[in-house]
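During the reporting period the student researcher (J.K.) took over the structure-prediction task from the postdoctoral fellow and processed the backlog of single-chain submissions. One of the processed entries is reproduced below for the supervisory committee.
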Amino acid sequence: MSQGSTRARVLHWFVRRGVARLPDGSERPIDVDPLVVGRDEGAGLRLDDPEVSSIHCELSAVSEGILVRDLGSTNGTVVGALRVREAIVTTRAELVLGQTRIVLEPEQDKKRVDVGFADRFGELVGASPRMRRVFGVLEKVADTPLSILILGETGCGKEVVARSVHAASARKAGPFVVVDCGSIPGTLAESLLFGHEKGAFTGANERKKGALAEADGGTLFLDELGELPLDLQPKLLRALAERQVKRVGASTFEPIDVRVLAATRRDLSAEMNAGRFRSDLFFRIAQVRVELPPLRDRTDDLPMLIDEVCKRVGYPQATETVHRWIEQRMGSYDWPGNVRELVNVVQVAATLADTPDAIDDVLTLARDGGGSGASGAEPMRAHTAFGEAKRTAVASFERDYFTSLARAAQGNVSEMARQSGMERHHVRAYLRKYGIDKDR
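J.K. obtained the following structure tokens:
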């Protein structure tokens, strides 16, 4: 799709905005962006009520009325006589949080919200209203110093968002450093983030920068932020607030100039209420929150995504065949692996598009992260020229795919697993199967 076509029209949402009336008579407007209610100082609507959780619930305007979502609060969120996890208030109602009673009043008339005209942002594509709204937000904040928290299920493209934001910012010439908080060894976590001096601990044979210093002048992406060890969180908060770091074993601080982007699939609200994640760090990093919808909620984007993947893997002519095959065979599939799973399926299907019947036999390789091929079983025995050709095509695809993957991930098996949507042991099995040296 050309750039011109992306600006052909502005899409709209029609929502019922509203107000929240507090006991003291004050009002807070409720719009499409969630209003966080809680006891924490960072909450958008702060309540001085000991029975209200730090991050209690959030309110937002949707087409039907006001969406109320409990955020893992201790004492619950009550609408009328019902304790709810998620509910839509369509008429005037009373919200009870702890000892506080708030009146919610949805507007009767729907108001138009401009979603935006862009159907892509960096490497991301999508024409659905929810994705266009995401792109609109990213366009506004990409070239600012604001920290962004990217939310979404596994496989939705959170790291792609981070890379695209970095590429659209004034920091694009600087480094983009990724830290997977879920794989940080506990004993080395502080060193990995802040660096260390020679001799600071056993095995510290040289002075080394940490991720924060390596990202100086660029962007630090904290993947799976919810997995960051609790004892490291105040140190990270201090480094970000004071814009300086002190290496393990050092006595002086070094200045840093870093923009932080982070992603998580965890419910950080519940983690904060449980004391496993610091709310001050959350609000420091979540200056802007972007939530990526799962693929099952934006299936209208499938044709565009299929077209984009086919082009990127070098088979643009396969788009129509692949799209027709997915419509016929996977029309009711809910894509639990999201865009990452779709990419894997389309790569296989595009490779075999000249023989569509062969796609069925190898789909499992893309969807379950390996199947029989990963376990080392013999390939399906072929007795015809077609079968032999199919086997050769699949082997060629697998070899090329994992060779390119190893190169792109610089031999990091965890990164290869994340990019491919597969388990690490399946990745290693393919590397062994084709004799691919991940360290070269």
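The committee noted the following: Confidence is low (pLDDT under 50) at residues 1-8, 364-385.
J.K. will present the remaining backlog at the next meeting.
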